[in-house]
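During the reporting period the student researcher (J.K.) took over the structure-prediction task from the postdoctoral fellow and processed the backlog of single-chain submissions. One of the processed entries is reproduced below for the supervisory committee.
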Amino acid sequence: MKKKIDFSEPRNTLTVDVPKSGFGNGLVMGALVGAAGFFLYGTKKGQQLKKNLQSRAKKIWKELDEVKTELTNPLEPPLAPTIPSKKKRKVTPKK
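J.K. obtained the following structure tokens:
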């Protein structure tokens, strides 16, 4: 039998007791960073992924540089609207 959950009343947030050990956190983070580094530099799939990420990063960096250039260059004054002149043409009669 499934228990129905009542969402009409707000609930307290879920709290998790995390140990405050700096050594343990550092050990876990070091292991994750080491595993990611090994994958990117030590395996063929990782090296291919690294190349793809680098090419995407270069494209994004180039686009950001273009946006930065557009934002830092002073804007040119708007051009005056061109109104066609109403010059009278001389009409020569056909002979």
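The committee noted the following: The chain has a mean pLDDT of 79.
J.K. will present the remaining backlog at the next meeting.
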